Amino acid sequence: MGPATRLAGNPATSLARNGYAVIKGAIPSERINALLASLERIKRSRRFRFRAQGTNSFESPNLDVQGNLRNSIHNPHLLGALPAFRKTVEAIIFSDQLYRCLCQEAGEGVYVNWQTMLFDRSVGTKNHQDSWYLDTDPPGGVIGAWIALEDISMECGPFKIYERTNKARIDPSDYDFSDLEHDQAFQRDHPEARCVRLLPAKGDVILWDSLLVHGADMPTSDVKTRKSLTAHFYHLGKAVQDQPIKRSFSIYDHRAPAKSRHRNILKAATINPLVYSSLCIGLAAFKSPALVGRGNELTEIRTVVGDRAAV
Predict the structure, then answer these.
(1) Where are the domains of the chain?
(2) Helix and strand totals (H; E) in the chain
(3) Does residue 25 register a pLDDT over 80?
(4) Confidence (pTM)
(5) Whole-Å CA distances, 33 to 37, 88, 201, 266
(6) Peptide bond before 138: cis, by omega within 30 degrees of 0?
(7) To 10 degrees, the CA torsion angle through 130, 131, 134, 138?
(8) Predicted local distance difference test score (pLDDT) of residue 40
(9) Between the CA of residue 37 and those of 26, 29, 188, what are the distances in Å?
(10) Rounded to whole angstroms, how far apart are CA atoms 215 and 178?
(11) Residue 73 near residue 302, CB atoms below 8 Å
(12) Tens-digit pLDDT profile for residues 106-150
């Protein structure tokens, strides 16, 4: 286990003390409504091609019987072929409201957005630390932000966290992450790791640090959704860890992040959005697994079953 870097925020904050924080009513409803309305308009657009979070492949929309996207969207803020939709995502991710949440819990300064994800329906997420996939070096400096785009209930398969597991990086092979409540070694090593299932209301923001063990239950309803927007941030100037997937080309430049609509939030993804959308459209047409390498093998952590077929 590598040493953890301490967040720059007040040590008395919930994020520093428990590894997570819930900020009620942070994002205005009108911004969320604009995003959801825009998503509904583009679901059948010929220009709507994206990298699917989970499979790491480039895909067209896969709708369930209710018209919700089965495949979640990786980096929706980069879809330049859909500018109106992209701007509604940016209006939340790069908002002063979200920036104030970050400053309140993790300290003031300039932040860098690493990536974003948009979920239109409920999915189950295996318990994990974000540090396995993306983090600072030393670990513990990336902050996740989960934004509820609707009221969340238990039937949705709620987001869950394990309090106070954010003290050090845990090896994925150390415990049975599919059943931590009955893993005696985990319970012995993390006696304060109470599992908390969170039921945020529309507009609430959940922040957590990259060492906190978290996941999401499988939904118990075929019609309930868990619409949400997720983003990851770190303080400008922190080094980032090497990525588990080696690629010859990266859309990220952590040494020289780009400006966003907010003067204190920069973007690690520096690729031109029109170029990014063109790549998504072109690679979706090829449908070649060789173009995405071993990404899904290494990073697939989300599952849906039945009509909730695997994304």
Answers:
(1) 14-303
(2) 7, 15
(3) yes
(4) 0.88
(5) 6, 9, 14, 25
(6) yes
(7) 150
(8) 95
(9) 20, 12, 47
(10) 10
(11) no
(12) 999 999 999 999 999 888 889 999 999 999 999 999 999 999 999
